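Quick question about two entries, pasted in order.
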Amino acid sequence: MGSRKKVHAFVRVRPTDDFAHEMIKYGDDNKTIDIHLKKDTRRGVVNNQQTDWSFKLDRVLHDASQDLVYETVAKDVVSQALNGFNGTIMCYGQTGAGKTYTMTGATENYKHRGILPRALQQVFKMIEERPTHAITVRVSYLEIYNESLFDLLSTMPYVGPSVTPMTIVENPQGVFIKGLSVHLTSQEEDAFSLLFEGETNRIIASHTMNKNSSRSHCIFTIYVEARSRTLSDEKYVTSKINLVDLAGSERLGKSRSEGRVLKEATYINKSLSFLEQAIIALGDQKRDHIPFRQCKLTHALKDSLGGNCNMVLVTNIYGEAAQLEETLSSLRFASRMKLVTTEPAINEKYDAEANRTLVNYDPMDEIQIAEINSQVRRYLEGTLEEIDIINLRQIQEVFNQFRVVLSQQEQEVESTLRRKYTLIDKNDYAAISAVQKAGLVDADGHLVGEPDGQGFGLGVAPFSTKPGKKSKSKKMFKEQLSSSARKEGASSPLSGKDLDVSTSKTQLTPSSKDGDVKDMLVRDRETSNTEPLASDSPKEELRPPRPSTPPAKPVAFEDFKNERGSEINRIFKENKSILNERRKRASETTQRINAIKREIDMTKEALNLQKSLREKQGEYEKKGLTIIDEEEFLLVLKLRDLKKQYRMEHQDLRDLRAEVQYCQHLVDQCRHRLLTEFDIWYNESFFVPEDLQMTLKPGGSIRPGMMPLSKIVSLGEDDQDRFGQLQQTTLPGGPDSVSFYNAKVKMEQKHNHLKTMMGLQQAHRK
């Protein structure tokens, strides 16, 4: 075991223009903070009120940047974690004092990132510097809200829903949370994505002290496992870094919290009080029992508080006179924490199977393999919830059968395509010439009537297209193509680019019933493989002439809604219809509630009348219970049913109002997108110069709406490459910030997409 050491305690003062210089003084060594209060003269001449306090800490961070805070507080803890030492960094303090800013920082600005993202960066940077070790990094994100445990990363798509609630479990290896998802991260960007995902799921609320107050305790844990690549020894080291962002303590008189926020504040203050009791017990060497199990927070941090880890506390305080009482309380907590000692030790583990000889299993028989194949197919179809695993041999066979099923599905898709289409190599000029003679493609290798990416059959036929048998063949091909697209669904339409001879490896052509195209291909291949490309059509396609003056926007808008914007317009109309229907239902529910309320009032009056008559006539009792007549009893039952109905209708009305608000949001979004898409289409259709129209035509490198009108460039420029280089050199934080911003952008895109899709699905379902 390692030697015992005291917990490091730091104080960070929130910057303010109203700093209490007369009451708060810093020592010259930046390790002492003195508090002075004036005596309260209202207490009289004999006044033993304490007016001066002095606190000795490891460092006072005043007007400190995020860089300085991390270098001072966390860098050593994180670096030792890769050597096998556990670490805990905790932020404590009054609500609004800057705990979350210190721990997480501002995700909008790379320079203002906090301890947590910087720790992730340091871990992956140190991994790059240790090529002799295979280091695995996993992360988890736990939230403790109102004494309940929540997984902030449960929204990840590969995390299944939890059936049982999470619980805190202890074993000889330490404390862990049963049911908490742990995520493998192979690169820095993945870790940032998980961090941002968890941050969006945190519970916050607003009160007078802080408009974005964290209403829960959060623990982000980084698990590290390091194995030597050069040594075959079974020994390896593990460690974990707990980064704890505590919810802020608050005086209810100052925050003026009420309702749900008041309940949250009560739970927060209670858990922080239990945390302080545990710290006091840990600092008292004579205490045998430490009350870790009083609340979920102290229980989850049992092996971090006074355990075998490097412990660091950052106490966040205000520098204002109005908050001096809370500042004193926070500094007392920091002083008590400095009395706690820990005993950091390397976590060495031994792999029992490192030098173990391989076990050879007998191969499965055909019946067993067939049964596993059947289970895999039923699992993929959704008729089987899970596959029961008995031994390692079965696991290997399950994966093998997954590969077999996938291969069979690929072969079925390929055979289906081959039945419908004929593959043509783009270098087979004889085959291309034959297809052109059949009237299926023009001289440029494009399909006759080539689609423009929005639908089928919107292209322009070349001059060589003539009526007769070839036209019929072309029509047959078009119908096959459309029917194939309908069968495969709108999610994967065939585009002109996929069927372009000049840009793709192969060309798909229809297999006609009479086989005339196939016969022609065979004849041309037999006669000559070097026949030059033949086409009597010019290479210029006919395009509708652009009007000399752009049409009026109202007229163009109607055309846009019927053509290119038809899908958005359809969704807009559907959402508006749903919104109107919800409004109508809400109005009807309101009328029913009013009618029920009137009936409740009438029933209460009748019941009071019956009660008064009973009291006048004299009450009868039996075994201590008042006896009422049948009419009064029926009124009581009726009143109970009416109240129940009233509550149900009122709940329905609340739900409908929420739906109306959400549907209104969707309608506004669709309207905005419809108008935005129309502006893009209008500008590109009537204002783009003629010499740049080729870049916007179907099959070009730029599709309408990809970029603003003023930013259209030529086909030869590699915009993605230029953007990548620009991103690497000019981002606010330099090249190191690329992963940070990439993860942030991906997270925002993902949540916007999921929110919109879920909203549309719910709206359509309702």
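Here is the second entry:
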Amino acid sequence: MNNRVSFSLLYTFFHCQLWMYGGLDSNVFLQYLAWVTYPVVLITFSAGFTQILAPQAVGSGIPEMKTILRGVVLKEYLTFKTFVAKVIGLTCALGSGMPLGKEGPFVHIASLCAALLSKFMSLFGGIYENESRNIEMLAAACAVGVGCCFAAPIGGVLFSIEVTSTFFAVRNYWRGFFAATFSAFIFRVLAVWNRDEETITALFKTRFRLDFPFDLQELPAFAVIGIASGFGGALFVYLNRLIVQFIRKQKAINRFLMKKRLLYPALVTLLVSTLTFPPGFGQFMAGKLTQKESLVTLLDNRTWAKQGIAEEFDYIGQSQAWKHPQVNVFVTLVLFIVMKFWMSALATTIPVPCGAFMPVFVIGAAFGRLVGESMAAWFPDGIHTDGTIYPIVPGGYAVVGAAALSGAVTHTVSTAVIVFELTGQISHILPVMIAVILANAVAQSLQPSLYDSIIRIKKLPYLPELGWGHHEYYNIRVEDIMVRDVRYITLNCTYRDLHNVLLTGHLKTLALVESAESMILLGSIERAQLQSLLSLQLGRPRRLEYIKERATAEKKRLSVVSNPSSDDGSHRASQEVRFQVRGHCRSRIDRMESHPFHLCLMGCNLRKIAPQTTERIAEWEEMQLDEQVNFNNCKIDPAPFQLVERTSLHKTHTIFSLLGLDHAYVTSIGRLIGVVSLKELRKAIEGSVTVKGVKVRPPLASFRDSGTSSSENEATELHKLWDRHKSMSLPREHTPSESDEKSQ
């Protein structure tokens, strides 16, 4: 439903621009103002509205969804405000006519709908309160976003799996297909109800011949399209990242743009609109056509070129935009590809809700059309097979190019299925698959996908892919990359030790070991649980209890030392002492609530407190801090995930990806020797790719002690540890708990 409404608004917006442009044909300058002002206003409004309401709505949405589906919580990313900002901002951005896409934002919008529906249903209780169920809903929503964007439910499910999941739960497979099929059905039914279509059909229906769609001699040309698209996709990702990094590294420009947030999108829109102005440079690159109109003409199965002579072109309908009296179609297509390439890479850096799939798809179709028209010019009479002449179909080359380039940029193979559903024909299934696979092979060896590149730019906590062809992943072990200085607490530690550990770091989970000498790992405790322990020991109830005891003791002391005639005086003295103690403690309690771990550093106004009372409170604090911690009321995870020191980097990456871990302890025969988090794993993977920043295996790694410790010694050691812990009762959890966030 949202997709249909957005398309209607886009249609209205763009035709309003064409109406303003066409009504001023008597004055070129006024035409230019109308052509440029309209997109600048829409982009500026989109950027401003999104920045004010919900900055999380900026960009594609797929990189963030990739991070969320891994189990990382991104604040304010799946809220109603973000939904409103995304829908309105995306509508204005696409209505401006800029080379921006909508597939990524639709994935985000569908995920927002799923999250909001789950939140609403959780009010009634049931399974929707479960976190795992919400992840399943979001996985299905990602398929819905792609499916309703192109009316391609099968390709949508496959594409969402490829770009958002490292490991996909098969039980979510039918849910994704069910939701994506209904979304695509409703999208196309609404088109029929609005009388945009006569019946439910493909979005960009083609009419290629089915009896002989291509000849085997054309396969090398399709392979060339795939290889070239692989290089082009890697270049697009590199150029997009280069633009963002250049702006960020130029501190003066960055500070200026941070103050004038709407200036950058306005300037980029002004530049792109000026270059696409139809009477200007836009006449050489079909600047008057929208992305949809450009794609329709590029997929046309009629040949434009005949021996490359412009006068013999057969232009019908919207194809006339590609006609120019001075240059032929090859020059027009080359200019279109080159200009749209860098303009799309630049436009996708604008802080508005937008994606990059559709611009890349159109550029790939233009490149395929260029190759197809070249083949038609080289073989004007077609290819002879058994005496039958079959002319070249340039539209088929456009389909292959669109699938190959979009697949190279996103590192997906499912774009082949998407183009089949988009065009309604699978006649070119073999060349499309060949080109997409070759494009992926080239692109993946050169650059990360566009979504992984954005994740690196935004520094989201996501584990990068290993890639292929890097044998060092199997040679690097956990002990080479782990952090050996582990923050831990012992079973017999004091509250002072607990206080000091919490002050020295910001880890969300701490390891619990038997003692500093043995370092036997007993479990892990969340930071919030340790905060509760410290608050209970030095919190308000304990302090009030101490105040009451001190006041009672002081009252008894005064009643004993005083004579019967001085009852009133002793009562007043007791009240005075009680007032002083309570006033002093109230000040310290209030400070404790705001800084629960700076209890020993809290000060007070000593001018109003008796020196003896202050000393007694300080002594009481010191006594409480020196007591041993009681873990009986603490929720302990008795089995945190552990790795052995010889686990390879490849296996560690697989385990982290499959289980959604963000840290794991490294143990040797039960002893805690280190910890590995996403940070260390990411550095090791990126470092091993660039051959920088990785501590590779030590020089004598090949001589590791296979003989220094025998299995018998290890068994004996384990028996000793078991005998030592037989009589020891570990603290148990009173209620089951799930950790939402863990340490890094």
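Reply: The two ends are 41 Å apart (CA to CA). The chain is about 60% helix and 5% strand. Hope that helps.
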